[in-house]
From TrEMBL:
Gene3D superfamilies: Glycogen Phosphorylase B. Residues 48-156 form the Glycosyltransferase subfamily 4-like N-terminal domain. It comes from Candidatus Berkelbacteria bacterium Gr01-1014_85. Residues 178-333 form the Glycosyl transferase family domain. GO terms for biological process: lipopolysaccharide biosynthetic process. This is Group 1 glycosyl transferase. One of its GO terms (molecular function) is glycosyltransferase activity.
Length: 361
């Protein structure tokens, strides 16, 4: 088979989509010596405006795929090419743009929240990154369950527990993180991540003077984040809550390993990669019990309602003071993370290509 993938998200600094595509491509090249792969991306830009995104997805990419005589076209992140030759496989990561359309600019909201989900009907087969995302696509978009296969993502190989104290210390110094215990949250500052709630829970937890530690919020500014900074000031937590801003790819795993726990009270995730990355790092996880997080964390972390302020405060107190709990969750997380791998993801993806090509899906 001649298989063509859109790899535009490998350009520039990596997002969640970029890590998915990058790891998938690396493993496809490693495990599949039978099929012929072509990876297509723009010359130097992945940050398209909405009109350029539409043009790339629907005209430029399928035209280039046709020139490559594709048997299978895989769009791993965005909208299904409607006019094309060959058969099309599309990966659905989440329905964030449908459920949280109010957080998108008008035209982006139309494209990601309306047009892109509509195009899924034109795919020959769909890959969902979690059972939760598959169920959302069935319930909300009315898609046929038989046209969707779940293939889980995995943590990048950079996430492991074997970083040295010196490496962790350098990473902490890069972001002015004191040499004290800390909880970490990794992700863009936006309302869906529920960070105001997290700060309030942290404030309640450390009201007990026996509870020592800081909260590190690692990630770039997204949207509607101004109230978060104001809340930290109002609660007089500027010496206990640290905003790192953008964190370099090589520093995130080191900060994860150095943390006492990952705290992740998100309202919605298509897969929930940070909890898996934390578990692969041997770092305990406290996460919300919504959307895909129970599927990823399973019984290897503490799962709570993302509105249970008292419950989160107690969980934070426990994880900062109970070394036995820390060790127990660390070991459970490491074992759970081993059940996910990019090689498995790639092999299952190749199986989908082959079945679609033979008309079995």
């Amino acid at each position: 088979m001649r298989i063509v993938l859109d790899t535009q998200t490998r350009l520039g600094s990596k997002t969640g989509f970029g890590f998915y595509v990058n790891n998938l491509v690396k493993q496809l090249e490693k495990i599949d010596q039978v099929n012929q792969y072509t990876f297509i991306q723009p010359a130097n830009d992945k940050d398209f405006s909405t009109p350029r995104r539409l043009l790339w997805d629907q005209l430029t990419f399928p035209w280039l795929a046709n020139r490559a005589r594709a048997d299978i076209i895989h769009q791993p992140c965005f909208s299904t090419p409607i006019i094309h030759r060959g058969k099309v496989v599309v990966t659905i990561h989440d329905l964030i743009s449908v459920f949280f359309s109010q957080n998108f600019p008008f035209w982006s909201g139309l494209f990601f929240g309306k047009f892109m989900p509509m195009t899924y009907r034109f795919a020959d087969h769909l890959i969902a990154v979690s059972e939760h995302t598959k169920n959302d696509a069935i319930k909300v978009l009315g898609l046929d369950p038989s046209r969707i296969t779940v293939i889980h993502e995995a943590a990048d190989e950079r996430f492991h527990p074997n970083y040295t104290e010196a490496e962790i210390k350098v990473a902490k110094a890069n972001y002015h993180i004191p040499d004290e215990p800390y909880l970490v949250h990794v992700g863009t500052l936006e309302p869906r991540k529920n960070l105001n709630f997290l700060v309030e829970a942290f404030a309640q937890a450390i009201a007990d003077p026996k509870v020592k530690g800081n909260l590190v919020i690692a990630g770039k500014k997204g949207w509607y984040y101004e109230g978060l900074f104001a809340l930290v000031e109002r609660l007089k937590l500027t010496n206990r809550v640290i905003f790192t801003g953008y964190v370099a790819d090589e520093d995130i795993p080191r900060l994860m390993v150095g943390a006492t726990a990952l705290v992740f009270p998100s309202h919605y995730e298509g897969f929930g990669l940070p909890p898996l990355e934390a578990m692969a790092s041997g770092t305990p996880v406290i996460s919300s019990n919504t959307s895909s997080m129970p599927e990823v964390v399973d019984g290897a972390g503490l799962l709570l309602e993302p509105t249970d302020l008292a419950g989160w405060a107690i969980a934070i107190q426990r994880i900062l003071t109970d070394t036995k709990l820390q060790q127990e969750l660390s070991q459970k997380g490491l074992a759970r993370a081993k059940q996910f791998s990019w090689e498995k993801c790639a092999r299952e993806t190749v199986a989908i290509y082959e079945k679609v090509y033979r008309g079995e899906l």
